[in-house]
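Q: Is it fine to ask for two folds in a single conversation?
A: Yes, each is treated on its own. Send the first.
Q: Here.
A: Result:
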Amino acid sequence: MIRHRRVFALSLALVILAVGCEKRKITEIVIKLPDGFSGQVQIQMGVVGAPKLTTSGQAYVVSLPSDGHLQTSTIIEDNLPARFENSRTESVWGYANSISKTGDGIPVGGSIDFFVGTKQQYETQEAHKHKSEFLRPNSGFRVQ
């Protein structure tokens, strides 16, 4: 009977230790935009020496500086939903999370890009982005 109590106590201690060491599952990204911000946002991930993102509950918290550009050593691999603070949801356009991986599938960096503003501002900004000569029709490059 004493042996059973010891086994039970040891099992209980292992369960408590396992639950205490379990990582919290991050389920969303909270992006805090500067008041009145409008323009392109780029969050560069996996930057050596940059600070890690903070967490609050089950969310990564990203506090953007006034220029909309941020570097972090954190890499968000999952395609997590984003919640924006200080902005109307309908003013966020082109949200994309891209990850760079090694040939072995190990994440080494990435970025989150989007635009904040009106639809017209977004479309104007997209029209002015650099378009590769390689992809442009009639650029003189032909595949044979």
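Q: Second one now.
A: Result:
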Amino acid sequence: MPRGWLELALRSDVVRRAVAYAAVVGTILNVINHGDAIVSGQLDGGRLLRMGLTLLVPYVVSTLSSVGAMREEGP
């Protein structure tokens, strides 16, 4: 029986990989999308929330990809 999705998503190797990808890709996306506001110091609460969500996107994509690959691989 295949392991549960959440169990795989919370494995330390999956989490480490997703955090690393989120740090790199999320930072690049934040610079592209919010660089002007960062440089000019226009970081209000709404923008900081959007920047946080931008970091979340590569984390989720990496996790989904890793778990999908592991589940296709089987036991």
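Q: Anything structural to flag on that second result?
A: Two points. Residues 1 and 42 are 51 Å apart (CA to CA). The two ends are 8 Å apart (CA to CA).
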